[in-house]
Specification:
Elements: E1 2-7, E2 10-15, E3 18-22, E4 40-42, E5 61-63, E6 67-71, E7 74-82, E8 94-102, E9 105-109, H1 119-125, E10 130-134, H2 143-153, E11 157-161, H3 175-183, E12 188-191, E13 194-195, E14 206-210
Parallel strand pairs: 3-4, 4-5, 9-10, 10-11, 11-14, 12-14
Antiparallel strand pairs: 1-2, 1-13, 2-3, 6-7, 7-8, 8-9
Helix pairs in contact: 2-3
Length: 214
């Protein structure tokens, strides 16, 4: 399974001759994801930073909510989560986390998650071997909550996204360094793309940094 970070929360996954683009971002996000080709697009929420499906080439199937799907041997499950914690008398703002199964691996992308996972959501996502997690501090999902989520889901590989990579907030006191300290794992050297296989997962948590394309 090949994984590339295209910027913001946008990830491209290649598995079993199938290309998946998750949370395609527009240029207003501060990143240019290019014009990736995909067979499948997942959209966690309708914000343009997560739903720029027009920027993806190909006749892709788009899934933007909970449910179970399959395309070219890749199994996809959408798990309902929240952009913000539910508040009494206020409609919940929804986010969909997606779980991909391919090549004997499970990859979970939490999208624009803005609230800690409930026990039921954790149970649905705990099979993840690879976790794509936002650490930019959106809503009530701050760096500490992200670290707690890693401990709850117990993935073997964590790939942080949705944090500043240039300008203010990208330095030693930014979300990435805070997250690394909270998780307590020295990260791998940053790569432009990472290839992960079942037999190479290892037995201890690995934090993999990726360089955004845009």
């Amino acid at each position: 399974m090949d994984i590339t970070w295209l910027g913001h929360a946008c990830i491209r996954v290649r598995a079993q001759q199938t290309a998946v683009v998750m949370d395609p971002c527009d240029k207003d996000s501060g990143y240019d994801m290019g014009r990736p080709t995909a067979d499948l697009i997942t959209v966690s929420n309708p914000h343009p930073h997560h739903s720029n499906t027009r920027g993806v080439r190909g006749s892709a199937l788009t899934v933007d909510g909970p449910g179970e799907y399959e395309i070219k041997g890749v199994q996809v499950t959408g798990v309902p989560t929240f952009l913000a914690p539910p508040v009494e008398d206020t409609p919940a703002r929804l986010n969909t986390a997606f779980l991909l199964e391919a090549e004997e691996l499970h990859l979970a992308h939490l999208g624009g998650l803005g609230a800690p996972l409930t026990p039921e959501q954790v149970e649905q996502l705990t099979v993840a071997d690879i976790l794509i997690i936002p650490i930019g501090g959106g809503g009530d999902f701050d760096v500490a909550a992200a670290a707690r989520t890693v401990r709850a889901l117990e993935p073997m590989v964590v790939i942080p996204v949705l944090y500043p990579t240039k300008g203010r907030g990208s330095g030693e006191d930014g979300p990435l360094q805070q997250f690394i300290s909270a998780v307590g794992v020295e990260p791998e050297a940053a790569e432009s793309r990472v290839t992960i296989q079942r037999r190479g997962l290892g037995e201890t948590l690995r934090v993999q940094r990726l360089e955004p394309r845009g």
